[in-house]
Amino acid sequence: MAHIRQQVRAAVAAALDGLPTTQGRVFTARPFPLSTGELPGFVVFIVGETNDVSSASGGSVKLDRLMELVLVGYAEGLGVEDTLDAMAAEAEARIAESFPIGGGNAPIQQILIARTEIAVDGDARTRAGEIRMTFEVRTRTTAADPETAV
What we know:
The chain is of the alpha+beta class. Helix content is 21%, strand content 47%. It has helices at 4-16, 80-98; strands at residues 26-28, 41-57, 60-76, 110-122, 127-142, 145-149.
């Protein structure tokens, strides 16, 4: 079994696999840039987590975990802004469909988009950009077992 953060990254990456714009180009926690052949594509990261005790009984402590998941989309070309927006629209819809609020789809109990940032650079012949979507992900584990959603 893997830590709940790794399971969340994998679940989101699996949900995004096969989207029209990015197809199978979805990577998790990748520390280096995508190559031209991997564009347009997504990289899934978890950049932070806060925990609160949700209950404690019989020696078992349950933790409500709030993760900050970042989905970064990379693209290039003259219409890069439109490509990035298409990627965002497809990803947001697929995430909402795959992880409905209150759906209890372990390991993700809830995932909501919190903010989006876009950066584009280049000239009239070559343009590249990224769209960085931050999602708040809620899940729950016991303190003694960070690998199993409860």
